[in-house]
Write a structure and sequence with these properties.
single chain, about 575 residues, alpha/beta, Rossmann fold, GMP Synthetase, Chain A, domain 3, eight-stranded mixed beta sheet, six-stranded antiparallel beta sheet, 28 strands, about 25% strand
């Protein structure tokens, strides 16, 4: 079955197979061919004094952000960095992220996002792999020393350091100064290290022309196997995905979005940054996610939207401030990055009165492929329907050259204007990432899914996570979903471990809800009574915590490595 939502701009219009479905908010208007800086330029021209950022109480207007982006672009050009050169961002959520991101692209450079949680070795590898020439960071103790190690041990040419204190409102600057010994790092006086302010030059008109087809961003994957790969995303890919996300939003006015998802991650890059800037909204930004601070900021700024991962919603539900937070402005929350447990979904909506919808995307898709509707019917447990101008279909799990048998789960593949061009310097990996069928280049997601008659997609599991139990395929997510129904279980991951007789046997790892008491044997007995014989676990292991990725979703790969070790 081929499910689409508007004829994709990147391929000839055709007639999808029976079962095609159009999103309730679908539109037939062609996507505008834009560069990423034009998202900012358009909104700044329309309302220069409108707030673009609220950073813990300090407001930056669209005119200010655009002016600083232009001056950063001029600074790059003055240092000989331009068309196609790579500029790295090793930043938390701070205002200069926007100036550096849009400014680098104005100069024709390619932005490379680096997680502020990277070790020096991880950062050095990706700096080398991408060929990053200039890196932007801030003077905090958890970042600057790491960046300096990479500067000294790699081909990186220049390090630009922003002042966190200079970005804060003055009362918080004083507090930061008092805590400076612990939280700030001293910027060394050396020729290859520049302060952010020294990097800014008067805006110039001699910037290189930038086309929508030009490469804009190298976004490294989470690295499900081996080293992470740099997904090559063009201006057109990123601008299209921002427009697609706006297209399904029934709320037309400017809004305020809670920006606690890390901007270096592809989910936030589209759903917090580019989408909000194109819409002319305001990002209520925090440098990192702290549940109580996020709740306070949501209430203080009267935020209308909050994209997050399931663990963020759970952490905010567990915070004592949840009961005194004003949620009256909050309309829509978007969960992504990991499956949303039904108990978290239900508790969040009951506590806040807002609508929480689940969506889906990948690094290779610029961020978003599908979501449940913000209004009208939605279906729990699904990742919703495809965005406008996007098509999906299911391929046979064993043979990706043919469609999955009717009514059977298959590998989800995606085509649309938001799909990456390939992997940086990895042509072989890029070839494996796509399947060409009926003249269309489909991105293979590695996720096993089913699609109902109305186009709602349900992810069954990852192909590589399937457990082979005596010839039967067990989907860990289905076992986890049952386990999460137990009132004592807060989080769950199921792994397949070697078994001499069956080949593999599932084992569950859980954390318990606050104040809950349960024994491993009790949980295993409860679970095994509710799943198929081949899905029964050998045991349940109760842990204080489960490993999580940099954006807070449960990390099956890290747990598997830990258990194997």
């Amino acid at each position: 079955m081929d499910v689409s939502n508007g004829a994709p701009d990147h391929s000839p219009a055709d007639h999808p197979a029976p079962g095609q479905y159009r999103h309730p908010c679908a539109w037939d208007t062609p996507l505008a061919e834009l560069t990423v800086p034009q998202l900012l330029q358009r909104s700044a021209a329309a309302a220069p004094d409108a707030p673009a950022i609220d950073f813990v109480g300090r407001v930056y207007s669209y005119a200010q952000v655009l002016d600083e982006a232009r001056r950063f672009a001029a600074g790059l050009t003055a240092r000989g960095i331009g068309k196609g050169d790579r500029v790295g961002l090793f930043l938390p959520n701070v205002p200069i992220y926007l100036s550096a991101y849009y400014g680098a692209m104005l100069a024709g450079a390619v932005v490379v996002n680096f997680s502020p949680l990277y070790s020096a070795d991880e950062l050095a590898h990706q700096v080398a792999d991408s060929g990053t020439r200039l890196l932007v960071t801030v003077d905090v103790a958890s970042l600057l020393p790491t960046a300096l190690k990479v500067l000294d041990g790699s081909a990186l040419e220049t390090l630009v350091v922003g002042s966190l204190g200079a970005m804060l409102p003055w009362p918080k600057r004083i507090a930061l100064k008092l805590l400076g010994r612990k939280s700030l790092a001293t910027v060394p006086d050396r020729a290859d290290v520049l302060l952010w302010a020294a990097m800014l030059r008067p805006a110039a008109g001699n910037l290189p022309p930038v086309a929508p087809t030009d490469l804009a961003l190298l976004q490294y994957t989470g690295g499900t196997t081996g080293r992470p790969k740099g997904a090559m995303l063009t201006h057109a890919n990123l601008a299209a995905n921002a427009q697609q996300v706006i297209a399904i939003d029934p709320f037309e006015e400017r809004d305020t979005i809670l920006g606690v998802l890390p901007l270096f991650h592809v989910f936030a890059n589209t759903c917090v940054l580019n989408r909000t800037i194109l819409k002319g909204g305001c990002i209520a930004m925090l440098p990192r996610f702290v549940p109580g601070q996020a709740l306070k900021t949501l209430s203080r700024t009267s935020a209308n939207a909050f994209p997050g991962v399931p663990t963020m919603y759970q952490a905010m539900l567990d915070d004592p401030a949840i009961g005194r937070t004003d949620f009256s402005s909050l309309r829509v929350c978007i969960s992504g990055g990991a499956p949303l447990p039904a108990p978290v979904h239900e508790k969040w909506e009951a506590a806040t009165g807002s609508r929480l919808v689940e969506g889906y995307g990948l690094t290779e898709s610029s961020g978003v492929v599908s979501t449940n509707p913000y209004e009208g019917e939605r279906r729990a447990g699904t990742i919703g329907q495809v965005l406008p101008h996007t098509r999906v279909r299911l391929l046979d799990k064993e043979d990706p050259t043919r469609s999955a048998p009717a009514g059977e789960p298959g590998e989800l593949v995606v085509a649309g204007p938001q799909i990456m061009q390939g992997y940086w310097n990895r042509p072989e990996a890029a070839a494996d990432a796509f399947a060409e069928i009926d003249g269309v280049r489909w991105l293979r997601t590695g996720d096993v899914a089913v699609i109902d008659a109305d186009g709602f997609i349900t992810i069954v599991d990852r192909i590589k996570d399937m457990i082979a139990v005596g010839g039967f395929k067990v989907f860990p997510s289905q076992v986890e979903a049952v386990l999460l129904q137990h009132p004592a279980v807060k989080e769950a991951l199921v792994l397949g471990l070697p078994d001499a007789y069956l080949g593999e046997m599932p084992r569950a790892y859980v954390t318990l809800a606050d104040d809950a008491v349960a024994e491993p044997e009790e949980l295993a007995t409860w679970l095994n009574a509710r799943v198929g014989k081949h899905e029964r676990v050998s045991s349940v292991v109760i842990r204080d915590e489960l490993p999580k990725t940099m954006i807070g979703k449960l990390d099956r790969k890290a747990l598997r490595a830990e258990v194997s070790a």
